[in-house]
Specification:
Layout: H1 2-17, H2 30-35, H3 40-64, H4 70-96
Helix pairs in contact: 1-3, 3-4
């Protein structure tokens, strides 16, 4: 499980650092398809922050409140990662909707 947290934490750092690059991580989400390329830096920064927070909270939760099974915790953590992607796109859609 530690490897899972480290991978997603490093992916969050990578998303945050490459936010200002022309295509960043080449993640083309709902917000980019609806609003264009100007939202890519915002989405990548927010995604990076959310993934780092998710990894930190997940690792703290895993070590202080042991789960019933690692399999359940693994799928729950992957679901939270998917929610990070959806939240970053949703916030970008709401923020840049009128611009």
């Amino acid at each position: 499980m530690i490897a899972l947290f480290l991978v997603f934490f490093l992916f969050g750092i990578l998303a945050f650092v490459t936010a200002d690059k022309p295509d960043g991580l080449r993640y083309k989400g709902l917000a980019q398809k609806a609003l264009g390329k100007e939202v890519i830096p915002f989405v990548h920064r927010l995604l990076g922050i959310l993934l780092m927070l998710s990894a930190a909270v997940g690792s703290i939760w895993y070590f202080f409140f042991p789960p019933f099974s690692n399999k359940t915790f693994f799928w729950g953590y992957l679901l939270s990662t998917l929610l990070c992607f959806l939240i970053s796109d949703g916030v970008a859609l709401l923020r840049f909707k009128g611009k």
